[in-house]
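Section 4.2 – Deliverable D4.2 (structural model, holo form)

The reporting period included a commitment to supply a predicted holo structure for the target in complex with CU-O-CU linkage. Inputs used:
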Amino acid sequence: ARPMRVERLANGQTLELEAGFVRRSVAGRELVMLAFNGQHPGPLLDVDRGAEIVVRFRNGIDQPTTIHWHGIRIENRFDGAPGVTQAPIAPGDSFTYRIRFPDAGLYWYHPHVREDVQQDMGLYGNMFVRGHEADLGPVDREEFLILDDLLLDESGAIQFGRESATHALMGRFGNVLLVNGEPGYSLDVGAGEVVRFLITNVSNTRTWNLSMPGARTKVVGSDMGPLEHEEWVESVVIAPAERYLVHVRFDSAGAVPLLNRVQSIDHLNGAFLPREDTLGVVTVGDDSRPAGPDGDAADPPPDQSAGAAFDELREHPATIVEIDRYRAFFDRPIDRRLILGIRTGEMPPIVRTMMRIDSVFFPAVEWDGTMPMMNWAATAGQVEWILRDPDTGLENMDIDWRFSVGEVVKIRVQNDRNVVHGMQHPIHIHGQRFLVLSRNGVPEENLGWKDTFLLPAGQTADILLEITNPGRWMLHCHIAEHIEAGMHAVFEVEE
Ligand code: C2O
Ligand code: CU
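Output (structure tokens):
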């Protein structure tokens, strides 16, 4: 595989994109993996808000596939939802996508067939839609971070299921953590520089808690643009398919680690174990900006004002004004409800035994793959994850929601704790955007437009869904093995 390239695409341009096989060595193992245009991560599509591009996609892998342009309020027939908006593209076949980018923000693209295999083995890339940089304030450079993990043993990747996904309970947690496709991340900056990190989580199931101890950090935006206001944070929690924009100032020379710090859990003994992984290091030079070996020609020129502007927590008036249009809807009654749960069929004995122990004690967020045997052994043939509409009793693909363009819909999503394996679910809605209004009845203080949000076990969230885009759209959990295990619905939007 080759490293990621930036594809700066103007309105009307065409990109040739091919999914194919590549050779890679990762953590000492020789692997055959998948890649877009031979690159890990796939090419970064860098476009302006309002641009429209054409992607001529060719399927060069040995499974049917489609491409989903995650978060883009795209024309329905190009959404890449198999069996909903298009037939899967057979090996060797092509499909032409036409993509208009109505919203600035950080997005990504990935296959929508057997994500547990195809996305995990390397088919993912970012899209950055420019248009709100002025609102976010000056920075010295932009760095894209794509978070992923791979599950490897001595010889290579642990077997995937041929007919259905393995690891259908918790999802496939990797044991090798990757940033931009590599096990060790490194960046050189000059003292005083402010870096905008644009972070995307493409892991099958892992939720990350990122931090850079010693460097002041603020979160400025999420999936579909800036938050209402900036906030100082110690760390950023990012669930599968979510994106966050954070600004970090590196004040003094030295090394700043990039950490993933979580609480692992020992289910057998009911004990929490702190777990810390170092994903890489930012090397801060003396005051001046280093003439980086990587050239850095594509980075914006150093901006003396970035360091000073960083101290202030800004408001983002464009976001606030846009959300103002919806505040009158915040207290409206609940329009639709969803309850998240699970149903299990015949399970291997090891799984049954472990699940009994497991259900005695579990955390709100399962941060790590702590019961690998039990988890691997359960396949999507034996486990069904469920979205249930309690008002109709309908589940998953039987759910029959219909809306019209212009509606604003309040949805209460409840993650049932009293199930055999309660855990968090990152919920994604195609083709529209929403606000997370409250969690367990507590209003969210700092809103931003989202397409994916994390619902921990036992939590209930109210979201406000803005209906603007006609067509048939998926709503699903973004844990790759959960979507394989049935956790998806489709709703219809009329013109
Ligand atoms: Cu990124 Cu339907 O998913
Ligand atoms: Cu899920």
